[in-house]
Each structure stands twice: as structure tokens, then as C-alpha cells.
Structures
1.
Amino acid sequence: MIQQQQVDAVLILSMQRFEKKNALNLQMYRELSAALQSAAANPAIKVVLLQGNEHCFSSGNDLKDFLSAGELNRQHPVVEFLYTVAAFPKPLVAAVAGLAIGIGTTVLLHCDLVYAAPDCRFQLPFTQLGLCPEAASSLLLPQIAGYQRAAQYLLLGEAFSSEQAAAFGLVNEIVPAAQLLAHAASKAQALAALPAQAVLVSKALLKANDKQTEHAIATELAEFQQLLQSDSCQQRLQAFFSRK
């Protein structure tokens, strides 16, 4: 469900579970983590491009599959992915169209360049499910968007548009949907054409506070695990599943 294609020095990772709006299941998390870990160690790969298709990026976690895996320890596929993407040392580019819900938005906080189609719907509905932020979004979103805007999206769980995401800095550029994937690929190729060591060092300098990010991931996960077991969360999850 994660298609891999290497074009020159760019590895393209395409989420392909379109019948479920690219809801990420445990197998997809495993495949993404393995691909990123392999790319990090492979000198022939200089840049990774993460995409869905021109209609959908990701509708977030496949919640039933996610809940089947038990405790959120370091071996949990979602947890492994969060730490892997946060620590990925090479440039990570994202092409986003359509839905970007939950992890579909928070993963973008770990990308270096984000290109979006005009029709995107970003949303972080954690509190609406009785849960809290994940993927260090409680740290990274305020850094990008400012506290009040981050609170609007993380506390109220309000959806926001491509224009809004570009205005506060989550998205680098809005690109027509038909040109999105090609445009993001061209930017990835432009990065790959630069001196590799200079790019790696520059990203490392930009990410100098990664220990803070790792700490935020761990803190959020501990709270997330507690909230998952609460009556409020269980009731909201049951209501969510009954609507599916």
C-alpha cells in the first residue's frame, strides 16, 4: 500500500489505499518506517517525496487497525514511524491534495517542503475524539503558526484550508491539482541536484532542537495512551465507528 519509486536520487513514497481515502493502517506505517530508514542509510537517495495522489493525501489513522495493536510502546508501528520521520536526516518533501486529517497533517510538520493543491482540507480532530495531539504537534505547530492559531486547530479541532495553511507557514506553495505531483517532484529533484553534504548539514542545523521534538513525541504518547482508556474517548470512538 506504499508504492516506492526511485527517480534518479529521489525516492517517491506514494500512499495507495484510495478506497479508504489513504487511511494509514499498521502495515502502511511499517512500510513507511522501513522505507525511510533504508533511504537514510542509502547514499544513492538524497531526497524523499511523500505523496498520495492528486485527489487525496491521507484521511488519518485507520482507527480500528490502530486500536488493535495494543499499548503505544516503542515497538508499536505508529510510534516507530513518528520517531523515524522526526529524525529523518535527508530532505523530506510532501505533495498534499484533498484530505489531510490527523497524522495526514501532523506528518507535514516534519517535512522540509510542503506543496498543496487548492482543495486541501487539513484538520487535527484529536480533542473531538477525546484524545490529545501527537507527532510533536503540540510543540511544532505553535512554532510555525503561533500559539493562538495552534490552539484554534488543536483545541477546537477546526478544519483549515490550503490558503490558511500557506498563510501561517505550514505550506510552501499552492499548486493546481493537475500539476501538483510533477511540481513537487521537480522541487525534490532540485534539492537532489545540490551538494548532498551541504544539504544534510543545513537540515541538521535547522533541526538543532530535535531532542525537544523527541521529548514532545514521548510526552504526547504517554498522555494519548491514558486518554485512549478514558470513558469519554471510548464513547466518542464508538460513536465514530457507528457512523462509518
2.
Amino acid sequence: MKLVKTILSTAVVAMAMGGAVVLNPILARATDNPNTVSCVKGEVKQDFTGEWTSRNTVKFSTADGKKLCKDVDVFVSSYVMPDNYNGEKFWNNPTATPQTMFASKKITLKAGTTGATVTTINVPSVCKNIQVDAYLGPELKVVGPEGHDGRAFATAIYKKTVDSCETPKVDTCNTETGKVVKVEKGNENKAPYSTDFTKCEDKPAPVKEEEKETPAELPHTGVNLGVLSALPISLAVAAGVAYAQKRQ
């Protein structure tokens, strides 16, 4: 708001006109209040406001919708946390660091704008504990106990939701090669793969129960094998007895 002030100056103009002295009043108009800030430099985190709306999406802008005085570089990064992270707050938590960068991008916010931005970043699998940050440069590749040194204005931690990072594999048909291959579960019907094994030459054989081997049964002749096997011995004994009787 502009204020109008009337300032009376006692500038004395001496004029050699009959010894008269003329007092000339001078009107002056005040300018804008010097304490009014028309833009922000974007050099401290307090110049911004932001939040993570999901594991990989963040939105931010200048605080109070003020315009930037100059272009400002903002970094958005995702980090892998230790597997033994205990789920507690970051500060003074030895299980929260070190964190290694997984992905990062630089966004230049233009002067004369509020820098309003919604952006996404690649993040690790849900089998990993992660931290995601939007912060003023320089870019930080490893996060230690000191965090971002007071430069992060939007930060969040997401705990892992599954324990194992291994994805089970299943058989599927590669329709381009005609071969059966193993792929990660969930990809078995994504081109060029198909679970229609008729399109593959070496389709897996159906699994059968193990068959027990049974001895073949001999044909029934009415004669006992034990009797047949004993015949030669009986004949030999009978022949011996007959011979002995003849000698007597």
C-alpha cells in the first residue's frame, strides 16, 4: 500500500526582488515499503514447501506462493537404506544409514515462477527400505547420519513390504524361438512369451505318477513248476534202485 506524505521543505530561495523572501513548499511522494519482499532467492529449505504423495511421487513449490528471484536447481533422489533398518525416525538412528543413491534427477525452477512441480523418481523394489528426498543442491550420492545438512524440504521413508527380493520363475513358451524357457512369474504371458505350449517344439511333458514295475505272470499250464524241477532227481533215484536190484 502506498502512503502519501507531505513534506514541507524550508528551502529558502533568496531573490533580489525588492528584498522579498519566498518560501516554496515542496511536495514528495513515498515509494513502496522497503520491508516488502517481492521474490525469494530459493537458497534455503524454508523458501519451499513439499510432500511425498507416494513412494515415487513428490510435489513442491515456493512457500506462500512467492515468486523466485532467480533460477534454482532442485534435486529429487531415491536411496536404498540398510536391510536392518528398525523402522524408527532418521535422526540418531544408526540403522537408518548409510543410504546409497538408487536414482536421481535435477529440476530447474525458473525465475518469476513459484516452481510448482509434481514429479516421479525411480525407486528400489518393495523388498528394500528406502528414503526419498527433494532438496537443494549439490546432489548427494550417499546419505550419512547428518542427512542433507538442512537442505531437504520434502523427505519420506518407506519400509519394505516383502522380505525376499527373489521373484519366482515359471516355464513359458517363447513364441519367437519355439523353445520353452523360464521367466519371472508375471511375465509368462507378455510378448513374446505365452503359456500356450502348443506353440513350442519342446513343450514340457505332463507329469505322471511313478509306475511300479510288476513281474510278468507266466501262462497257466496246469503243471506246478516245483514238480517239474523235482522230476530229474526222482528219475535218477529210481534208476539207481533198479540197477541195485538187478545186481542182487
3.
Amino acid sequence: MPDETISTGVPPTIHKDVLTIPGTTPASKTLIEHLLEQDLSASSLSSMAWAEVTLSLLAAYDLGAPADLLRAVFEEDRQDLANVFTSDLPKKVVERQDVEIHATNWTQYLGQAKYYANFALFFAGEVKRLGSQEAFEHYAFSAAANDHSVFMAERFFGGAAHPLIQMGYAFEFNSDAMVVQALAQTAVHEAFQPDAFVWGGPVPSTPGNVGLHTNGSNAALSPNTPRRLHARGQTLFSIIREMYDSKALTPVLPYDADALLSKRRKDAMIPERTSELRRLVSLWSCTPDLSPSELAARVEELFFVAAVVFAGVSKRGRKPRLDFFLMHVLTSSIFVLVLSSSIKSKEARAKLLNGYLTVVLSYLLLRGRPRIDPELLMSYTATPVPPSQRVKKGDSMPTPGAVGNSADAAYNNPWPTLVAHALPAHDAHTVKSIRALYIVAQRYGTVPAGSVIGAFDADGKETHVGTALLDGSVFVRAAGVLLDQLGWVGEGQPEGKWDRSALGWDAAWDNKDWRMV
């Protein structure tokens, strides 16, 4: 039997100065590097499903998973791995492509999954020649690598942002091997809607009164609360408000419950809509001359928007739902910070931010333009616990050896329990979502109500109903909703499911299973 692995010569080592949660050991680090080496040499990451294995392992490792759990995760997920030489996934055909990709022909093989191994070998050479940072920046964003409709930047944002996520993990864990994987994954992906990006066509002019619209709420800014707006450009919450007000971005009707994402994209992404997406993204004013403080503000607001888009788009009086594709907005958002900090070119950094917002708005459109409801999200508990630990006030057992009442959720930090139940989840997206929320809560968990960027418009009115209530507890509230829906599996609950109905359409809520009980 011919060898079914490749040798890139790039070491599989990882390094992160400070892990998010302690718990890792020399054994777990050695194991995860061994598994990464197997993944690099023998597996194709040309599809979203195949890429999840490495990423779920790193997410669990970063949250303190012991070696035995990491091994169990890999053994369960390895069935989803495809051979590195897979040429036809549906038919499970494995065939080595007798092609050598090099600097003068690499663009000829783009968008074809069967050349994943060939691209991995090519990019391994480029990473060794240029270094990880320069290889990433050159092939993802430079004009030289994107001339003549090569669309590497658009491929980087494709596949529900999985190449971006893969690259984010690569830089977070200082892994040259994962940079190779991410570049190869980018190369074989389809370009995501090139005409939707601000660099993909003319940007329509914006009326002079744009940004003055509110949702009709009279909630006013407290006189003691500083209004947080951008010195130039609109905030993300204002841009989403504009999106809701845009007739051009009215979702496609009638609602088709069975439509695949590819069909929704084909129906929705007509020139009128992609032109409007370019206009909305331009309102964010992410230009190459952003100052460090302006960049930091845009990353901060992105995290709050990602949490609300993830867990705040359900309907009142109904069971909460978590959209599978909008979940990727959350899990990818943390890597905008990682990658923007790694990119040296100001032009490439602006392209990263603008491209990412294009993806966020596009997926909102493709999911039926669901309305964010910050007030609903802030109504969920900030002290989530598993069902077995939910007791009525006064019913808990006394704890005389402890200060306060350790049996009462209000006296406990919910995060250790949340992490403990996410780590053994079968679905890799659960642990990655918890990790994203945990990391962002570390940074912005103390932001008080009224101080979230874009909560108020220039007139001091809420941009959306409930944005005045948003504070740093939104991340733990979202984490509680996540485990309520996907399962507190650590105590024996069955695993839940992500919503794939495209919940922005009202008709997607007609199913009686989603009524509140």
C-alpha cells in the first residue's frame, strides 16, 4: 500500500505563554503535539468538518483538559477525518495528485479540495522561507497574491470563516504547522461572495442623515455614563440597525425550511444586496490609518455584538435557540484580535476587519436577518448552574463551614462549572463556544451597563431595545443559554442540537417544538 501521509518538515510544536485555564501537564502537551503531527501529515482540512478535530483539541487543551480526555476526544472525532489525499469526499475516493505546486503555478489549482496535500507541501516551503507571519500576510492579503481574480482574501473568509479560525488558533498557539494547514485550507476553499466585500466593487453613497435612526426607544443615557461612539465611522450596533432598516436587505421570500446554505446564498446575494453590504461595511470606517485605540474599540464592540448575535436572536415567550452558523460569528470573533495583533501591514489589518464584518452581515442576511434582542439576552440568568443544582431560595442545605451560602448559585463563580460541562461535550462547537465566551469575559466582564460601545446613538437613544442594559455579564448569560440548549452533559443530560432553521424568518418559529413550555 502506498504511503498515505505527507512530510512537510514543519515541526508540530505549540506554545502559548499563558493558557486560559490551568490544568495542562507535560503529558497533555506531548500528546496534543503528537496528535497535531498526525493531523498535519495524514488528514485533509479542506472541509469544515475535518478541521474541527484539531481545533476542538486545542480548545479543550486551553481550558485545562487532561491527557485522557484529549485522547478520548481524538478517538471519537477521528472518524470524521479524511485522508490527506482525498479527491472525492462523497465517494470516499483517495487518490494522490501527481502535481508539484510552486510559486509560478499555485493559482491554477485554487478551489479544488483534491489538491489539499499539494498545497500543504507548497505552503510548508513558504512558511520555512518567509516565516509564518509573512507567509500568512502575503498569501491572504497582499495585492501580489490577489491579482487577476485569485481571491485568496475571499477564500480566507469562506467556509463559515474556518480558514480564519484555523489561522487564529495557529497564531494563538504559535504553531507553524497550523499556519501551513490554514493556508492550504484557504487555497482549496471557494471564494466567499467577492462582490460583497468593500474592495470588490464601488461603495454606494450614504444619505446625510444615516446613523440618526433609532428603534423608537426612549431609554436615555444616564448623565453619569460616558457615551461610547467612534470618533469616525458608525458603531456596529448602529450598522446592524441600518441593516434592519434597509429595504434592499429584506430576506428572500417565501421561507424555505429545507434550503441549504448554498441555496440561501445563491438566492440572497444578488447585486442589489451585495452593493448594500459594501455600503454598510464602509460605515465602520476601518481604514489603514486606524490608531491603536480605534482598533481596540472596534475589537471590543465586535465581541459584544458576537455574543448578542449568538445568544440574543430568539423570540420572547419561546425556548431560546442558537443558530449553527451565527455560532461561528462568536467562535471566530476572538481571532480578529489575535490576527490583527499579528499583522504588520496596516492595509492588511484594515482588510481583515472589513472582510470579517462582511461575513458577519452576510450570515445575518442568510439566516433571515434575525432581530437582536439585548433585553431578552440580559433577562437570562447571570448565575447559570446545572438543573440538579437549581434550588429555590431558602431550600438549600446549610453550609456552616463556609462563608455565605455556597449552595446558593449567587455565591458561586459559574465559570468552573460551565467549563466542566463543556469539556466532555460530543459536539466540538460547544467547547469552542464556551472558550470564546470565557476569554471575552476575562477582558470585558466588568463593562457596566450603558458603557458598551454603540449602546446609544449620537442622540443618546438606544440603538436597539435593551442595549442600555447590556453589560459585561452578557458573556456568562450567553454561556448559560449555550449549555441549557446543548446540554449539561457532565451530569447525564442528553446532548442538545444547534438550530439550523434559519431562525430570522418568522415562519421558522411555527414549529410547536419551539414554543415555551
4.
Amino acid sequence: TIFLNNYRKIQQERYENGEIKLNTLKQKAAPLRVFDERFGTRPLDAITVKDVVSVLEEYKARGHNRMGQIFRKVLIDVFREAQQTGDVPPGFNPAESAKKPQVRISRQRLTFDEWMMIYNAAEKDGYFLQRGMLLALMTGQRLSDICKMQFSDIRDGYLHVEQQKTGTRIAIPLALR
């Protein structure tokens, strides 16, 4: 729809103004593409709850409930923006009425023996990987933050980190041995 192009521009402006992060902007691209492929020729106010649910059920059938959640969340935002611009009547948001897909968290933690096996196998890839693993273990930082760390981030006995995801700044004492 024409509105989706406007929505993309709105999101780009929000990113440029620092209201949303780059990853948030990127995360919206795939759901918007799916929405455009499925419903692009129809007016926004002709989209029904049943239409939204049909896409969510396709995600569920493929075992992609998390992507279904993201699709629904992006559509809720699309229809809210459309309400703001008058492209749909106030309160019209079929995505909000669609039931949120349930996602069962299935994270598994490594045992120490499993971690050591990976650590020892990483030796052949050079010392950088092993040092990164130790740094992650000691600091509890995300992979993206570990990859960004530099020796110049060490000042006054602390490792200074600005987390990419949240922008939070922290100082980790080096005396943690």
C-alpha cells in the first residue's frame, strides 16, 4: 500500500532522530515485506482480523511463533500510525484483536564441561576467540559488545563499555581476577 511507504519513511525519521535503534528499524523490514506481499493491493481499512490471523497461523505451522509475534507487533504499530495520519478510522487495528502467538523459551545453558570443550576447540582459531570467550564469561556482556571492545576502553582500572543494544554505560573493574 502507499501507506507502507509512508510508514517506512516515518520509521527512518524515527531512527535518524534517535527514537529507535538500527536493529529495531531492520527488524521491521521482513514483516512489512510479508504484509506488502499479502495485502499490498488492498486498502488498509479492508484488512481484517482474519487476514492477520491467517499470516500468524502460517508462521505457527512452520514453527516460527517468534516471527509471528514480531509480525503482529509491527502491524499493530502500522495501524496506530495509520490512525494518526487518518488513513484508517480511530480504533481500527485488526492486529491488536489477533491473539498473540505464544513462544516457549527454550534456552539451554552450557555445562562447564561443554564450555571447556568449546574453549579448547577454539584454540586452533587463534587466541582471539578464546580471549573473547573468557571476556564474555567474566563480564556477562553481549557478543556485540565483546566484539566492539578495545584496549583503549580501559581507563583508571576499569573497562568502560557502552552497550550497543541499550546505550547503557558501565565500568567493569579490572580487579575481578
